[in-house]
Amino acid sequence: MDSNEIKVPAEFSDICPFSDEVFHSEMEKLVVEPGFKHAVTYAMPKIDYDQFCQQLLKITNKRDFQVGIMHPFLEMLERNTTAGVTCSGIESIDDAVPNVFITNHRDIVLDASFLNINLLRSGKPTTEVAIGNNLLIFDWISSLVRLNRSFIVKRDMSKRQTFEAAQQLSGYIHFALTKKKQSIWIAQREGRCKDSNDRTQESLIKMLALGGGRNVVESLKEIHLMPVSISYEFDPNDYLKAKEFLMKSKDPGFKKSQRDDLFSMETGLLQYKGRVHFTFTGCINDELDRIPADTDKNELVRHICHIIDRAIHLNYRFYPCNYISFDTMEGGDRFADHYTAEEKAEFLNYVEGQLAKVDIPVEPADVEYMRRMILTMYSNPLRNHLAALDEVK
Known about the structure:
single chain; alpha/beta; 2 domains; 7-stranded mixed beta sheet; 7 strands
């Protein structure tokens, strides 16, 4: 246990990461959960589970768990499912100043995990991670993420409960930054952006501003927002997202099942993602200072969202699939110098292979709809990048 660990106020006890004081007792409960055993042996089929549990039970704090268990596991995932996880702009992080890293959202688990790999490799402090309770399908998943320095975002509540939860969440984030001196990762919107048209949710900015006890700008400056742009070459869930778009087009009330969510998490974790890049774009406090003091509050929130969006859009890393998707959808060759004929054929064959995985009866028109949705996912970052470039010219 870290004797210097800051005690968290009781008002945050149901959402914050487990303290090191209770780490061992919570781990004892976790290792006997059948669901945890199934997940571990599914992700690492060659593992000796009993020996692994003995290793876990020797750990007494969250940092040693991250460094000794999670970091090697994520490096294994990187080796087996990516062509490398890289970053740029990390020198813009001041180690003495904790940040809220706000990113576009591609993968349920790996966005924050790979961000923390980049921080660890650069000798930077890692983050606590915001995770929605809609993903905590079983109690053991909730325990695991809180052992792994995650905190809980409460969703799907009444209007009154939603506001109270936003106050609690914002209060915890401000406490983590100012008292624990702990950086935070949070996605720019609730849930992954399935068509990759990344936009910051206004309600998220309003929530983040609640906890500072001052005006919106001063409250946000207190937590040092830094946009981070995430670029995956391939999204293993692209066909699942296209299928979901199709289902919703036929039935606007369609909702995925818990089993669907679990399968999405497994697919994102274990299937191939190609190259993955993170761009740290710098803290936006200076830009917040330049916003006129008399700006209407709603306009102010929209403007702050736009600052974050522009930083993310300007700093994507692009791959041949992005350029190919754009040109294919536009029916032109504007970016033909960014890919070869062979790369184009390979990517379009990849799309057909992904479409073939869809496990529901479909008509030719349905397949064409899903094909266009996949191309949209891969081309939207480039579209937004081009629009952001036009704006800053």
